[in-house]
Amino acid sequence: MVFRNFTLACLAIGMMLSCESSGKRDTSFLQDSVGNINSLQVVMTDALWNGEVGEEVRNYLAAPTDGLPQEEPLYAMNQMAPEIFTDFARINRTFLRVDLGDTDTVMIKKSVYAKPQTGVFITGTSEQKLIELIRENQERIIAAFYITEIKEKQKRIRISKLDIDSLQQRFGLSLDVSSAYRIAQSNEDFYWIRKDLKSSGSTNILVYEVPLDYIGQDSTLITDIIRMRDSIGGSYLPVEDDGRFITEAAYAPLLFSTTLDGRFAYQTKGTWEVKDQYMAGPFVNYAVRDEAKNRYLIIEGFTYAPSMRKRNLQFELEAIIQSAKIE
């Protein structure tokens, strides 16, 4: 079992609250930012990039994304020299600038050259100091970029939304889901919302609930969550030839504590499989504690895309889940 506090989520929530409470400067004159989801512009000299400083940046920002069956980096990074970082090159939605200078500072700034935009400026008096600053601040840097990308993805989803009012009536839950999805199955106990991918496969959202005592504490926690999703998912999701949709047994899922819509939740990331059918993929499961209704509200996103990279597919599902509003 792997269990740890979901520190990035806590940092992200704190940063969002601080941003909302602070005064806003006028950004109306700025250009709109550009960039693919989870692409990051890295501004530093070639000498820094090709040395230990660049390696430290890659250690964190190109680290493998949690919960995927194959390694994919957190961000697709594009490095450029500082002298090229002018005009149009400055309007990427996220950027990291690393320089040698007279001070040792890390600053996270919003909408400096475009809107919306998150820029991180790291200045160090030596290469070793730059490495220390990157290492000491990597969690809040990643959290800042994560917030920006989640908000951007949610904005794109809201352009055309699926009408799922029945989800509110049944579970007291609203989600922002793209109209590219459809309701594949719905009843009093279980919702399955699905988007078919152009090449092959699908991305999926599941919603159901279980009693509070269904998920225990400490030593039984991960076992209970696996048992829950194997039981519910295996019972409701149709699989050919008597197979079952279950958690892959070979790898222990990652378990985090976090919040969703201000409520305590367990977040589980791992791999699902259908045994003997060579079907598998990543999932992210949120078990949201709702004491008022004596339940855990379960919202899960999973992907089946055998011929595609899955980082951004799962990221879309996380953006949908994090739009949750719970009565």
Describe the structure.
- With 327 residues, the protein is of the alpha/beta class.
- It has two domains: 156 residues, no CATH class; 162 residues, 3-Layer(aba) Sandwich (Protein Transport Mog1p, Chain A).
- 29% of the residues lie in helices and 33% in strands.
- Helix 1 crosses helix 4, helix 3 packs parallel to helix 4 and helix 4 crosses helix 7.
- The longest helix is centred in the middle third of the chain and has 31 residues.
- 34% of the residues are buried.
- The N terminus is likely disordered.
Which CATH-level-2 architecture of the largest domain?
Answer: 3-Layer(aba) Sandwich
Q: Tell me the major beta sheet.
A: 9 strands, mixed
Our count of helices gives: 7
Q: Strand percentage, roughly? A: 25-35%
Provide the residue-averaged pLDDT.
90
Cα radius of gyration in angstroms:
21 Å
Protein name: DUF4837 domain-containing protein
InterPro entries: DUF4837
Pfam families: DUF4837
Main attributes of the structure:
327 residues; alpha/beta; Protein Transport Mog1p, Chain A; 2 domains; 9-stranded mixed β-sheet; 5-stranded mixed β-sheet; 18 strands; 33% strand; disordered N terminus; DUF4837 domain-containing protein; DUF4837
Summarize this structure briefly.
The chain is an alpha/beta fold and 327 residues long.
